[in-house]
Specification:
Number of helices: 12
Largest sheet: none
CATH architecture of the domain at 108-334: Up-down Bundle
Oligomer: single chain
Structural class: mainly alpha
CATH topology of the domain at 108-334: Growth Hormone, Chain: A
Length: 340
């Protein structure tokens, strides 16, 4: 509980720094992906080597292995957090008499910022895709595929592909635009899940197919992670454009809330779903249970991906000419205020 609360307290101001770092579209596309690359690298390390490290540290005792590894991670986290706190400086001081925003006002700001509401739907869909498949993966490879070691293969290819997607994002957005990058980011996970499904029937223990499925899926995930981080900063600008206030922390707190909410829903869905399909730990699963596991791992995330892209395509408008005009207007307002 303490970890979850303090993580949230730290996470909101951390991501709220992005709009303050730069107002340039191109620079945001470059800056926003940097922390995501490091986060994806951490997931790559955990997914690829986590189980091996646990076994080695525990020397046969899994409980001891997890506990020891948790201590190592906690120390690394504290050191990296201290480095950030000591070296990041505020460029703009918040006035001491700044108006406090009540909970009711916060809800009104969210409600009136229509693009923030749209963004909530998009990010909720994205997180459900990744959280459900991520929570289910170890069960899927252990019982459906029948070879737990392939989980590490899947995670290794997936992690490298996600980092590649984040690295490529600024280049691709410059060449083909943000809308097309987001479209590819939505299509690739669907293709990856379909390949995983076909491979599970045709050649369930083929490491190449599994690695390819993970790579395709997570390449799209990299595009989506980078795109939504940039979109958050743009939603802050949109709030200022429409409502006259920036409200970075409110907007970025919504992201943290969505990540936490999706994680909770995914954990609940996987737990309840496994019970409903008749999963029994450590036993050979029935054909019905295997089918149910495939639905949770593959088909539910595919539906989430389709819904997410539908919301983006039909409702999200901070792109192209509208976005450019919005930034020009905000710059005019800023110069007018400076002149006063």
């Amino acid at each position: 509980i303490l970890w979850g609360m303090t993580y949230t307290i730290m996470d909101i101001p951390y991501w709220s720094m992005i709009p303050a770092l730069t107002s340039s579209k191109e620079e945001r596309e470059q800056v926003a992906v940097i922390p995501r690359i490091f986060a994806s690298t951490a997931w790559l390390i955990m997914g690829t080597f986590g189980l091996s490290i646990v076994k080695k540290l525990g020397n046969g005792n899994v409980v001891k292995g997890y506990s020891s590894f948790a201590v190592v991670i906690a120390v690394a986290f504290i050191i990296s957090a201290i480095i950030t706190c000591l070296n990041v400086k505020e460029r703009v001081e918040t006035p001491k008499n700044a108006e406090k925003v009540s909970f009711k006002q916060t809800l009104n700001i969210i409600r009136k910022n229509d693009q923030l509401v749209v963004f909530i739907g998009i990010v909720l869909g994205m997180n459900l895709i990744m959280q459900i498949s991520g929570s289910m993966a170890i069960y899927y490879f252990t019982y459906v595929v029948g070879k737990e070691s392939l989980f590490s293969v899947y995670q290794a290819f997936a992690g490298i592909a996600e980092i590649s997607g984040l690295v490529l994002l600024p280049i691709l957005t410059k060449k083909i635009g943000r809308e097309d990058v987001f479209k590819f980011g939505s299509i690739l996970p669907i293709a990856g899940f379909l390949l995983l499904f076909v491979a599970g029937i045709v050649a369930p223990q083929n490491a190449l197919f599994i690695g390819m499925a993970g790579a395709i899926l997570k390449l799209g995930s990299g595009f989506l992670l980078g795109s939504t981080t940039i979109m958050l900063a743009d939603v802050v600008d949109y709030g200022e454009f429409k409502l006259g206030t920036r409200n970075e922390s409110i907007v970025f707190s919504v992201q943290t809330l969505l990540v936490k909410g999706a994680s909770a829903v995914a954990g609940w869905l996987v737990g309840v779903g496994l019970s409903l399909v008749g999963y029994v730990a450590g036993e050979v699963q029935s054909a019905t249970t295997i089918l149910g596991m495939r639905v949770i791992m593959i088909w539910i995330p595919i539906v989430c991906a389709i819904v997410m892209y539908t919301i983006y395509k039909s409702k999200y408008k901070i792109n192209g000419k509208f976005h450019d005009d919005m930034l020009v207007e905000l710059e005019k307002r800023k110069k007018a205020n400076d002149a006063i």
